């Protein structure tokens, strides 16, 4: 059985680990609150621009004589570009593993060539280890702004507009709540028009909006902004998911460390009692020998 000194050393080591994980939990909680606020503030705009774009695309699709917007053209998919958004650091529970498994499954199930644009070091390393085609890698700060991510969106638009790829898909962790992060794969390009039936399209036409110079020109200007917004919001969702997952992981680690300390303390007390009992027996035995 280990000595009392061994138990004390283990208790000290685990206690120090609990202090570190507790501090990391508080830091992650602070960052999580800030990231959640950014996500909640950006969701209404991201959802609204998606709805507006869907309505415009539905109206444009009904006009067969109008030229098709480049970023709405559907081509046979021979090459797919994946924007993979992952954390830069680990210690986020199963989040990184789930993202990597989802990306690997998507690559295996996709017909044709697949290339990757990575945002985050974990995704970059995964793509390199897997031997996939890494087109570019980006890193963004903990408090990203639209200016920090606009280069990513413009690159995706350029790759699709130049017909180097036929489809662009975003894979990221969607923030649901503090305990739930959902790995999501969503097509960005070509932009899919909203599913509207004839009655809905007629209602849109009855609104009698005036588009200057035309719906297609508005779409030509709006779609790149839409892609930039969706990329930015996807990165915000990924950051909120990362900090939430890390906070939960560090909380679990701290709780487990405290439980280990309690168990080691109990074992230390047992070892001390056994040591004291053995010493008492030795003393009693010595006294008895002297008296005999």
From TrEMBL:
GO MF annotation terms = ATP binding; proton-transporting ATP synthase activity, rotational mechanism
Taxonomic lineage is:
Bacteria, Bacillati, Chloroflexota, Dehalococcoidia, SAR202 cluster
Q: Which UniProt keywords apply?
A: ATP synthesis, Cell membrane, CF(1), Hydrogen ion transport, Ion transport, Membrane, Transport
* PANTHER family named among the record's database cross-references: ATP SYNTHASE GAMMA CHAIN, ATP SYNTHASE SUBUNIT GAMMA, MITOCHONDRIAL
Name residues in a coiled coil: none
- What is one term from the GO cellular component aspect held by the record? proton-transporting ATP synthase complex
Task: Please tell me the species this chain comes from.
Answer: Candidatus Lucifugimonas marina
Q: Give the protein's function.
A: Produces ATP from ADP in the presence of a proton gradient across the membrane. The gamma chain is believed to be important in regulating ATPase activity and the flow of protons through the CF(0) complex.
Q: Which GO terms describe its biological process?
A: proton motive force-driven plasma membrane ATP synthesis
CDD domains per the UniProt record, alphabetical: F1-ATPase_gamma
Q: What is this protein called?
A: ATP synthase gamma chain
Its membrane topology is listed as: Peripheral membrane protein
Annotated SUPFAM superfamilies: ATP synthase (F1-ATPase), gamma subunit (SSF52943)
* InterPro entries xref list: ATP_synth_F1_ATPase_gsu, ATP_synth_F1_gsu
Recorded superkingdom: Bacteria
Keyword match Ubl conjugation? no
Q: Which family does it belong to?
A: Belongs to the ATPase gamma chain family.
Oligomeric state and interaction partners are given as: F-type ATPases have 2 components, CF(1) - the catalytic core - and CF(0) - the membrane proton channel. CF(1) has five subunits: alpha(3), beta(3), gamma(1), delta(1), epsilon(1). CF(0) has three main subunits: a, b and c.
Q: What are the subcellular locations of this protein?
A: Cell membrane; Membrane
């Amino acid at each position: 059985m280990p000595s009392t000194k061994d138990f004390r050393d283990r208790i000290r080591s685990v206690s120090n680990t609990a202090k570190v994980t507790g501090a990391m939990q508080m830091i992650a909680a602070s960052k999580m609150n800030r990231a959640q606020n950014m996500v909640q503030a950006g969701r209404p705009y991201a959802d609204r621009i998606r709805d507006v774009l869907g309505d415009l695309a539905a109206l444009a699709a009904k006009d067969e004589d109008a030229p098709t917007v480049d970023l709405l053209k559907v081509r046979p998919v021979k090459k797919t570009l994946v924007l993979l958004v992952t954390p830069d650091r680990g210690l986020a529970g199963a989040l990184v593993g789930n993202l990597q498994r989802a990306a690997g499954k998507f690559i295996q199930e996709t017909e044709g060539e697949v290339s990757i644009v990575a945002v985050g070091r974990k995704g970059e390393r995964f793509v390199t280890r897997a031997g996939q085609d890494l087109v570019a890698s980006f890193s963004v700060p903990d408090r990203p702004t639209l200016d920090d991510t606009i280069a990513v969106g413009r690159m995706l638009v350029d790759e699709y507009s130049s017909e180097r790829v036929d489809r662009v898909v975003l894979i990221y962790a969607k923030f649901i709540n503090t305990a739930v992060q959902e790995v999501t794969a969503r097509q960005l390009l070509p932009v899919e028009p909203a599913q509207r039936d004839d009655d809905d399209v007629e209602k849109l036409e009855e609104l009698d909006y005036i588009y200057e110079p035309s719906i297609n020109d508005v779409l030509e200007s709006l779609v790149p902004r839409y892609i930039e917004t969706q990329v930015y919001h996807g990165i915000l969702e990924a950051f909120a998911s990362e900090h939430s997952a890390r906070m939960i992981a560090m909380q679990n680690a701290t709780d487990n460390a405290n439980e280990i300390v309690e168990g080691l303390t109990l074992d230390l007390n047992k070892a001390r009692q056994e040591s004291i009992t053995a010493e008492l027996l030795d003393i009693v035995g010595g006294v008895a020998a002297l008296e005999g």
